[in-house]
Specification:
It comes from Terrabacter terrigena. This is Type II toxin-antitoxin system VapB family antitoxin. It is a single chain. The chain has 98 residues and is α/β, with parallel strands linked by helices. The protein has three helices and six strands, in the order βαββαββαβ. It has a six-stranded mixed sheet. A hairpin with a 2-residue loop joins β4 and β5.
Length: 98
């Protein structure tokens, strides 16, 4: 299994970070793919296979740590690409909510 679980929603409270600029203040760290719970259950293959998929966005996926769980909010295509390249970890911005 690539991820800990596949979800289809954000079970954590709204955190107010909307734009790439908002997220830029959250430092990236290494996360294990096997610890991530996705917040989306579908993926657009055009995003996964695009050469410039991160050209206009953040280089790092966005995760939220809440109640001891790590949720992948944005960057599913980056995480899946890492898994396809047999990398068990990736660098992601992790917002810790209490």
């Amino acid at each position: 299994m690539i991820f800990k679980a596949v979800g289809d929603s954000r079970p954590y409270p709204d955190h107010g970070l909307e734009t790439t600029k908002d997220w830029s203040n959250v430092p990236p760290r290494v996360v294990q793919l096997g610890e991530l719970i996705t917040t989306k259950s579908t993926l657009d293959l055009r995003n996964l296979l695009a050469d410039d998929s991160t050209f206009y966005g953040d280089l790092f996926p966005h995760c939220v740590e809440w109640e001891g769980q790590l949720y992948l909010e944005d960057g599913l295509h980056r995480a899946l690409r890492a898994a396809l390249q047999q990398r068990p970890v990736l660098h992601a911005r992790v917002l810790v909510l209490s």
